[in-house]
Every structure is written in structure tokens, then in C-alpha cells.
Fold this protein.
Amino acid sequence: MAHSQVTVTEHAEAHNPALRHHFADEQQQKNAASLGMWLFLVTEIMFFGGMFCAYLVYRLAHFNAFAAGSQQLNIYLGAINTAVLLVSSVTVVLAVKAAEARKRKQLVSFIVVTILLGLVFLGIKAKEYTDKFEDHYVPGATFHFDKPFDDNGKQIPVSSNAAQLFFSLYFAMTGMHALHMIIGCGLFTVLGVLAWKGHYTSGYFTPIENAGLYWHLVDIIWIYLFPLLYLISRHS
Amino acid sequence: MASEAIANPEPKTNYLTNGYGLKSWLLTTDHKRIALLYLISVTIFFFLGGFFAMLIRLELLTPQGDLMQADTYNKVFTMHGMIMVFFFLIPVVPAVLGNFLVPIMIGAKDLAFPRINLLSWYLYVIGGILILHCMLTGGVDTGWTFYTPFSTAFTNTKIIEAGLAVFVAGFSSIFTGLNFIVTIHRMRAPGLTWDRLPLFLWANYATSLIMILGTPVVAITIVLVAVERLFHLGVFDPKLGGDPLLFQHLFWFYSHPAVYIMILPSMGVISELITCFSRKRVFGYKFVALSSIAIAVIGFLVWAHHMFVAGISLYAAMIFSFLTFFVGVPSAVKVFNWTATLYKGSISYTTPMLYAFGFIGLFTIGGLTGLFLATLGIDVHVTDTYFVVAHFHYVMVGGVVMGYLGGMHFWWPKISGRMYPEAWAKLSALLVFVGFNLTFFPQFILGYIGMPRRYWQYPPEFQVLNVLSTAGASVLAVGYLLPMIYFLWSLRYGPIAEANPWNAAGLEWKTSSPPPTFNFDETPVVTWEAYNYDEIPPKELEVPVGS
Amino acid sequence: MSGQVDALYIYLLFVAAVMTALIFLAVTVLAIKYRRKPGVEAHQIEGSTILEIGWSVIPFGVMLTFFIWGAVLYFKERTPPADATEVYVVAKQWMWKIEHMEGQREINELHVPVGQNVKLIMTSQDVIHSFYIPAFRIKQDVLPGRYTTLWFKATKPGHYHLFCAEYCGTMHSGMGGDIVVMDPQAYAQWAAAGASAALHDTGKQLFLSLGCASCHRSDVQGRGPNLAGIFDKPVLLQDGRTVTADDNYLRESILDPTAKIVSGFKPVMPTFQGLVDEEQLNALVAYIKSLSPPAPGTAALQNAPAGAQYGNTQQQ
């Protein structure tokens, strides 16, 4: 990363080694990193937004089939996953706080717990996907759906084609979300190693904060996915 | 005094001489070197896209499809479109001129995230390699718009690889935009308030907003197409009750704002050129600055004007038609303000200024023909014909490329430390202007008399206009090749440029040509308005006025 | 209608030419008049809010005239007259299949009588195509999975180009054809020469052979709704929604019967997706439409069932 072959060894004043030289001061660097991360989160919202848009259009056009498909999802596993993610967001906040307080071991512990919770989420997701595969709810040649929409006791039969649309969106949206979870776990693994080596307990912990923001966003996306996919018309 | 130099005008090293060897370039985080890396790669893709254009125009010399097979032709126009849109037009001005100039114009040492800047170039290159590989191993034949269900269920060309290439290049675009927004918000020099920003920065800021908000939508659209092809998650499949029109909505939601990504930075360039070469502050600075933001915002509300005959409802069509007229107003405002800037100016006819004049003329025509397309009753007839092809080439080539070339000539001394040969440059500008009009004006007529686009063969009555168009394209090609040659020539033999050869306003002219690696020895403190030409005397004339 | 499109076009052309000339002129004159002269300095002008408002509002006002005229034309283009003769079009890679109501079938050619409103009901067998008649200044994309419509009234006999205007693969540029507009007598002769079973008769045969008649009866309450008189009327569905029984509804109900089940009926209708092709679908839809009274002004179809009796009971 050669900015210059001539190394500048003298500084006008001492500063945190994490300060990059194109910034005027640490505050500017922190502000820049923060704004940059929020902008990146906006791109993620727009990215998922396309799929939410498809969901909106097709749910309006095929409500019964969507409700029928939704009623076949495992609401208990989904709820557990929701709780798991919410707790993991708490551990992320605690990790950031530990970094700010310069407590290395605490920071690493909270990162590890976060990753473990993330893995629990992914494990439960894998179980759900396996169940769907066995039920023949995976779109494609093997798809078969003949369950009705239970509308408060009234059984309304639905179009199998439209149910396949629901499940296509289910797999696309939760799959993309799971991919982001995997990336998040990977990010925190790297940060966990660096934190254990003491990188983030000297007052500079922007990467922890930013990774935390990412994790929170992925969590919030799930908070939307859960009711939209699992809770359509579950009055009883 | 306002025009004091802030950096040593004759430093011992500049960004070009500060480190030699491949590693110092390929691992650089200097925004100026990254801009040059982009310049090289973008130029390669421009000529590749131009090569495909040449093949298209050659095939269209005769009504029959006799130069190549239909499938080959379909791949050629697809690749022409994909390369020009995703690998040339979208990155060119922001990644080349923007990367080079944004930090300097802001008074900063670099962009906010230099390593992400380098990453964004590598993503562009990876996307570029993927698209090249895709082309060499069969290519795609869906048109750059890859509509479903043709792209999801009927073509057996390499959609996923091409989609991946565009997806990766899209991230390059997102990171560039992210970098610009943070830099402009957080790293302005002291005293450089928003209302003192050069218009090139306002333009790039607005462009970056679109890059951030729009690109992810085309990214997810590509993912959904890939997922439908690979895993049969048939989100767009009509046999399942899916809607092929949903694809079009998602696609155009990005691809319409994308054209504003292409034009806005060029418009920013024009503001710089017109002010410098009329020696005047731009007329209506606030309005020109805010019109960029207006275009970016309203540009997100008009996408379905690409779908008036696609099967959308009558009422949706009317709403989008109305909004499309609305987005034309800020563009018109810019043209009027630039023209008014000429009034009581002191105008020089340098090459950059000639390109600026060319831009105003051609963008006016391109923009006005956009109004034809916004008009519902007319669009039904001319959509999907050569009228649309002519319209977008007028704004993209007559607009974006003219602005880009004008900017390249204007900032070439700053970038390279050398001057280009003025006579050859003026000749090229003329060839580009004449060649361009000869190529694309006949296409308006072709479209209105009924020639559809993406046609490998056509009825004989369309031949004369096609031949005219191909003739123009050959002139245009020469006009584009010449700068390649003389810019390279100038690196070795061009006269050495001084720090401010145009006596222009702007922080970039207060540092040496080429600038030192860190741009400024000390952070400048800005106490003057933008385009303070009342305080900067013009260059002494050596050449007779009006040459 | 094409004359009206041309009139609008000429109006826009005029305004655009004037604007272009004004800008070109302004730039040229200003560039020359204010070219750099030694000793003469540029005059800094900040701007003029009045001018900005003026040259925003006035062009927008002019643009509104474009919008209104264009929207009115578009509205007319997308509102077929009730008395239009219907013709079915099925697009496929890479040809146009035309089915007239009286049974004439054409490939890449559409014969119509002059002076008659013609409404095309179009669908695609595969990818998106677009039906484009430059001479009539009309175009409409043709989609798989649904019907789109296009209407026109030819005013001059002759041959006119038909093009596919939405890229659809290898022979997109070869998917052309001919609109043949004939004098009424010539058309009648042509129609008689190519006559075969009327489309709705073909549909009726299919209705019987596919077993539709066993559930959809008009004499007694069958397992399926009585189809007499339902076309373009509102239908109450099982989940409480009300939809209109238009072309697309009939089509969807044959291919995906559980999508919109009529209130009070059980979901026992099997799907016919894969069992009928687009042309057979058109025939069936035409037959079901023939069981409803024709729109006011439409000439009654030849051989149309006199009343609402249909099914496998005594019929010709």
C-alpha cells in the first residue's frame, strides 16, 4: 500500500497508530467510517428491498396461496430463531461496550457468544430447509403442494403454482439472509481473532462498531422476514 | 490573495514519479494513480464496445444478414450494450475524472477510504475479466436488458456468468459512490462550505446518491434471474403465475437512474469548462447545483416510461409520463444556465470549450427527443425502434462522451504534466461532432418510419439511412482514435504544462501539474467563492483570438 | 388515429426544432459576440431568480401540452371500441399465428376489411414479443401467461408491414408479416374462401371433448358454475373478492382453476395446463364468450348459439 516511497517518520503530534494519514484527525476518521458504514447499510436495505417488492406484488395477487404456504412453515423454529437473533444483537452491543471500556477478554467473549448464536440460527435454518425438502416444498420438478389455506376453520384450496411462488420467495429471501448471517459470522471471527490479539482495546474500536451495525441490520431484516413469511393469517 | 499557490509548484516528486514498479501501481492507494488505472481499463472496454459497434454498423450496411449469422449478431449487440453501459458509461467520469479530482477539489489528501477505492478498481477488473471470458466462450444474446422469460427460460447462453460480471462491477460502482459521499461530507477543507463547492463536486455527489440507492436493486434482480435459472425458483415464470413484468420493473428501477449516473458527472464537467473559458462564475450557481440533486431524486420516479407498451395499466402509464416530463425540467435549467453564463463572458475557443459547445447542442437534441418518448401517444409508435436508439446515443455519446473528452482535455495537463497538441485536438473534436450527427441523426428518421431495434436484417427501404449511419460511424471512429494517439504522444513529446495553464479557478489548479502524492503541502483554507474569475486574470494570449 | 399521432409528432417536432434553433443560435451568437478581446473583462453575473422560475415554469407548461395530448391519444389507443371485431393472435418464436372468429387461420398475415374496428387479443407461447404496425402507429407487447389487446381501424386498402418489436431471440428480425387491408367485398370473398369451423365452434368441440360440459351445465346446477352470460360480469369468489370475468380470467381459470374459485363451489376442477395449447385456449375462451350476449353494436357472430343453452344437450 505504498502511498510514498519516502517514509515519514516524524509526526507533528503523537496519535493513535490506527489513524490513517489522509485524515486530519481521529474524529474525522471516526465520522467518516461511521457515515461510510451507514451508507453501506442503506445499500443492503435496497438490495433486500427488491425481494420485498416481489413479495409485496405476489402476496397481493395470490394471498390465499401465500397464507397456505405460510401456515406450513414451522412457527416455533422461526420464533426461536427470532429470539436467538435478538439476543445476539444484545451480545453485540455488549461487545462494543467492552471494546469502549478496553476490556479485551470481555470483548472476545461477547464476540464468541455472538458467533455461536449466529451458528445456532443457521443450524435451525438448516433443519427447516431439510424439513421443507422432505415435504416437497422446494420449488422445481419435485414441488408438490396440496394444503389449503385455513381461514379460521374454513379450508380454502389454493393454486399450487402460486404456492410455488411463495416458496420460491421464502427460499430466496431466507437464503439471502442466511448468506448475510454467514458473512457476519465470518466477519466477527476475524475481528474476534484480532480482538484477542489486543487490536481493539486501545481506544480505537471502529471495526467492532461497524461490524455491530452490520449484524444489527441483518437482525432487523429477519425481524421483517419472520412475520411476513411465517405469520400470514395465523389468527388461531 | 485568493490565487496564491498552496503547494510548491515545482516539487521534486509528483504522484507519477513517487515510486516505480508494478507493485507501486497495483497496490497503490493514491486516488490519482487509481484514476489512471481506471483510465486504462475503461479505455480498453470503450474500444472493445466500439469494435462491437463497428460490427453492428457493418452488418447493417445491407438489408440482408450477410456478414454474420443471426445468433452472432444478437450476441454482438448484446455485448456492445453490456460493455458500453456497465463497463464504460457508468464508471467513466466518476472513476477516472472523479477519482482524480474529488479529493483535490475538496482540499483533501485522498478520498475517505483509499483502500476501498483500490478494491473498487479490482472489482471492476474482475467484472471485466468475467465479461471477457463470457464473451470468448460464447457470450450472451439477450440484449443488455436481459428480459424474462427469454433470459430465464429460453436462452442457453451464458447468462449467469454475464450476470456475475455485472454484479461484481456493480459493487465497484457502489464503493465509488460511497467513497465520494463520505469524502464530500466529512473531508472538505476549512472554509469550503457547500455553497462554495465546484459544480463538478455537486454533480458527483448527486451521482453517488444514485449509485448507492439504485445499484443494489439491479444486483438483486440479477441474483433472482440467476436463481431462477439455477434452482428453478421461478419468481418471474408466467407458468407459475409469476410476472415477467415484475422483472422489468425491478430492472428499470435501477437502469433508468443509471442513465443519470452516466450524464450527471459529465454535466458537472461542462460547468467547469464553461466557467473557465468564459472567465465567469456560472449563471445561477444555486440552481445548477440543486438541479443535479433534483435530477437524481426525480430520476428514481420515472422508470416505467420504458414500459408504456409492456402491459402496464393505463393510469400507471399516465403517471410515469407526467413524472418523466417533470425530470426534464432540471436538465433544461442547466442548459439555460450554461448558455446564460456565456453572456458578457470572455470566451476562448479551446478544445475543452469546443466539446462543451458540442455537448450543449447534442444534449439539447437528445433531451428534447426524450420528450417525444415521454409523450405517450408518440412513444407507442417509436418505442423499441431506432428512434430510441438515436435518442439514447445522443445523450450518452453526444452528452456523456463529449463531456468526458472535454474534461480529459481540460485536466490532461494536471493529470500528466503535459499539454496535448491543440490543432489535432480541435480536429478530433470536429470529427467527433460531425461523425456523431451523421451516425445517429438518420436513426431518428429510421425509427419513425418503422425500423425496429435489434434487427439483424431489415426491409430494403431502410437501407439508405443505414448506409448514412455507417458512414458517419467511420468518421466518428477516427475522431475517437485520434485522441488516443495524441494523448499518448503528448506523454513523451508534449510541451510541459505549468501548474495552471488555463488560469482556472479551483483548488486543483493551485497545486503542481502533476500534483504531489498528498496533493497539498498544507491543508488549504478556502476563503473565496467558487469560480472567482473576477479575481483571477486570464492567461495572456499568444494565439489570435477565436482560433 | 395514425394521422393524430403524426399531428402530435409534427407539433413536437416544431417545438423541438424551435428550441434547438434557439439554443444553437444563442450559443453561437454569444460565443462570437463575447469572444475574448484584449482589455475586455468578463462581467460577473450571479443569476436571476425570475429568469430561473421563468425558464422552469414555461417549458414545463409547454411540456404539459405534450403530456395531455399524448395521454388523450394513448387513452383512445388503449380503449378498444365495444363493437370491434375480435381476432386472436398467438405469438411464438418466430411467427405470428392469427385466428379469426370465423375460423380462418393465418400465419404472419392478417386480413382485415377496411373501415372496420378490429381488436386483437394476443398472447405468447413462449417469450415476450411485440405486435407493431408502423403504418398504423401502434404497438403492443405480447406476453406469455396473459392476454394483451390492441385495436385499430384501417382506413385505406393495401399491404402494411407487421414487425415484431420486442427482441425475442434468433429470428426476431425475421418475425415480420403483412397486414392486408381489403375492400369489404374482397374481404368477404377471402373470408368465405378460407372458412373453416368458426373459432367458437372449435371451442365448443373442445368444451365437449375435454369434458368441460360434464360440470359446467346450463340445464341443471352442475359441479361447476353456469357459464352462460358471465363474460365481463363481476364474479364473487370464495375468499370474498369480486373480480370481472374477462379474457384473462377465463384463461387463468382453465390453466390454474384453484387461483380464483367462485363462491359456493368446491375446488374439483382439474388444471388443463399442458393439456391445451394457446390456440385451443383461445378457442375455448371464444366459445365461453359466445355464451354471453354480444356487446351493443357488435354484429352477432355467425352460428352463435341463439340463447344461453349449451352443453351436451341438443345443440347443432
Observations:
- The longest strand of chain C covers residues 85-92.
- Chain C touches chain B through 83 residues (CB under 8 Å).
